[in-house]
Amino acid sequence: MSKAILCLVIGFHSIFLLSGNSQQPPPLSDATWFFELNGTSVGPISPTVLAQLITTRTVSANTMVWNTIPNFGNWRSAGTIPELAGHFGGSPTPPPVVSPPIMPPTFMPPPLQPPVSPPVSAGGYIAKIGFDDHSSSSGEKHTSASEILKQDRANYHRFGKRDSEDQSDPYLTTTESRSSATFSMSSSVSAAILDAYPTVRVVPVNGVFHVSIISN
């Protein structure tokens, strides 16, 4: 089972109540959940973590989710599951009456596995990759996406060069922490960072910083 990106941007956004009233939805049952992010199955995660992801809008009513409950079936939109509907502020959305889609391999429910510890994640940050991030402080052009991401943090923490969408982070505040940081991303994300100026989300999971594109 993939232990990829758990997009927990917790501590850097205000916590929003997604329901239309002040009453909290009932807690989720004690089950193991998975959700789809950029074509990748993410999990297993606990009900508590899933509720946090819904609250921070990382998981929406349209996000594909899967559960280890027997007879859960194939992946389904979160908003169509009665247990989750209250967290989106309404009744479950009836699924459209269509023939079952042929899901890509990465969307197929993962096989049941012995319990494992969820990936360790302590939040994350959002960064706008700007013009200054593409070159070192001495003017040398960077040749890898990881170097650009490290330069973004150096510009933020050391040189005070900050774009409007940049967020602070507690992980890459020193030269030593930036030098030893390991970034993980797809080839398309790497190309976007090298060739353009996207806004990215960076999330630490088990000591590795996972990068995804928010907007180009």
Characterize the structure shown.
With 216 residues, the chain is of the alpha+beta class. The chain is built from 5 helices and 8 strands. The strands form 2 sheets. Strands 2-1-3-4 form a 4-stranded antiparallel beta sheet. β7 (199-205) and β8 (208-215) form a beta hairpin. The longest helix has 15 residues, at 145-159. The relative contact order is 0.16.
Features:
single chain; 216 residues; alpha+beta; four-stranded antiparallel sheet; four-stranded mixed sheet; 5 helices; 8 strands; elongated; disordered N terminus
| SSE ordering | EEHEEHEHHEHEE
Mean pLDDT, to the nearest integer, reads 76
- What percentage of the residues does DSSP assign to strands (E)? 15-25%
**Helical content class:** 10-25%
Strand order of the largest sheet: 2-1-3-4
**Secondary-structure-derived class:** alpha+beta
List the topology elements.
Blueprint: E1 33-37, E2 40-45, H1 47-55, E3 64-67, E4 76-77, H2 82-85, E5 125-128, H3 145-159, H4 175-180, E6 183-184, H5 187-195, E7 199-205, E8 208-215
Parallel strand pairs: 6-8
Antiparallel strand pairs: 1-2, 1-3, 3-4, 5-7, 7-8
Helix pairs in contact: 3-5
Task: Offer a quick outline of the entry.
The protein is of the alpha+beta class.
